[in-house]
Specification:
The chain has 226 residues and is α/β, with parallel strands linked by helices. It has one domain. The chain has seven helices and six strands, in the order βαβαβαβαβαααβ. A six-stranded mixed β-sheet has the order 2-1-3-5-4-6, with helices on both faces. The protein starts with a strand and ends in an 11-residue tail after the last strand.
C-alpha cells in the first residue's frame, strides 16, 4: 500500500483562501506525498481496468469528490482527506494500518449528528452505536479489499439506478442536491440527496465491517475551512 494522500476539488469554482490554506496544511503537516485531484489531474489516475462511471461528469462537484474517495481508495489505496485543516503527521496512521489486519483506519465518528440519514431501524441503530463508525473526512484504506469492492459496487449501482433522472437533470451547481432551491425560483430535480453518494453508502458498510476497521485520532479540524 502506497503512502499517498488523495484530496479533490472538482470546481468549477476556485477554492477559497481558507480552503487553499487547508490544502497547504495537508501538504506541510501530514508528511506524506499528496495528490490533489482536479479536472486537470484526474485522467492520470483512472485505471483502464476500472473505468469511471460514464455519468460521472453529470454529478455535482461534491458528489464527484465522494465518488473519487471511493474510487481512489479501492483502485489505488492509501489515504483520502477532505480539504480541511490538519496539524498531524499521517505516518503513525499508516503504520497502525500496516501493522494490523484491518481493511482501513479512520477517526471515530464525531457523534450521532454525524451519522448518515439512511432512515429506518438501521439509522437508529447506527446512531446508538456511532462510536463503531468512522467519519468521511480523513481515512486510509488498503486497495481492492472486500470492503472497498463492495463500496465501489454499491456506488456504481446507485448511479445506475438514477441514470435516467441524472441524464435529464444533471447537476446545475457544485453543491446541487435533490430539492435544493435555485435563485431563479426553480427547485432542483438532480436525483441525489446531499449524503446519498457519500455517507449513505459508507456508514452502513463501516457498520457492517466494524470489526475490520481501525480507529485513530486523525480527524481534521471542522472549523474555518470554507
Amino acid at each position: 500500500m502506497r503512502r499517498i494522500i488523495f484530496s479533490g476539488w472538482m470546481g468549477p469554482n476556485e477554492m477559497t483562501e481558507s480552503r487553499s490554506q487547508a490544502l497547504l496544511s495537508l501538504v506541510r503537516n501530514t508528511g506524506c506525498p499528496q495528490m490533489h485531484l482536479t479536472t486537470n489531474t484526474l485522467a492520470n489516475w483512472i485505471d483502464p481496468a476500472y473505468p469511471f462511471h460514464p455519468l460521472f461528469n453529470l454529478l455535482s462537484a461534491v458528489h464527484k469528490c465522494d465518488y473519487l474517495r471511493c474510487y481512489m481508495l479501492h483502485v489505488h489505496g492509501g489515504g483520502y482527506a477532505d480539504v480541511k485543516h490538519t496539524q498531524k503527521s499521517w505516518h503513525p496512521f499508516f503504520d497502525q494500518l500496516e501493522r494490523s489486519a484491518a481493511y482501513g483506519v479512520g477517526y471515530t465518528e464525531v457523534g450521532e449528528h454525524g451519522v448518515a440519514t439512511v432512515g429506518g431501524e438501521l439509522e437508529i441503530e447506527m446512531k446508538q452505536n456511532y462510536t463503531k463508525l468512522i467519519g468521511l473526512c480523513a481515512m486510509i484504506f488498503r486497495p481492492k479489499t472486500e470492503f472497498t469492492e463492495l463500496w465501489f459496487r454499491k456506488l456504481t449501482e446507485l448511479i445506475d439506478s438514477k441514470a435516467e433522472q441524472l441524464l435529464q437533470h444533471p447537476a446545475r451547481h457544485p453543491q446541487d442536491r435533490f430539492g435544493a432551491p435555485f435563485t431563479d425560483g426553480s427547485v432542483s430535480e438532480y436525483p441525489f440527496a446531499w449524503t446519498a453518494v457519500g455517507g449513505d453508502l459508507f456508514h452502513p458498510l463501516v457498520y457492517q465491517y466494524a470489526d475490520q476497521i481501525a480507529h485513530a485520532d486523525m480527524a481534521p479540524s471542522f472549523e474555518n475551512y470554507r
